[in-house]
Amino acid sequence: MHELSIAREIIAIVQDEMNNLNLTKIEAVNIRLGALTGINADALSFGFEASVVDTNLDGAELIIEEVPIRGKCRSCGKDFEVAEFMFLCSHCSSTDLDVITGEELDIDHLVGS
Length: 113
Ligand SMILES: [Zn+2]
Hints:
With 113 residues, the chain is an alpha+beta fold.
């Protein structure tokens, strides 16, 4: 399961931050997850909950902000949400576009003490 290894990577990064910031308890880990990553948010939450048991993150909640795919059209310069993986400008129907969001997998912030 791909999400389980990602959950473990997130935990490792958070543990590094806990050391850096001298935190002993984490209540929540807020991440931003882009739709283009193909990562299933429910599976990631499940993997996280299963992996924090008996670590210093035990009890921490993973809060996932899902980021939609947005494109910016190179023809007309407008930006728009890409629905259903239709990479087509909703203003002028051009297919010449840049993806501007949707590839995120970032830890946004931690809530801890
Ligand atoms: Zn356009």
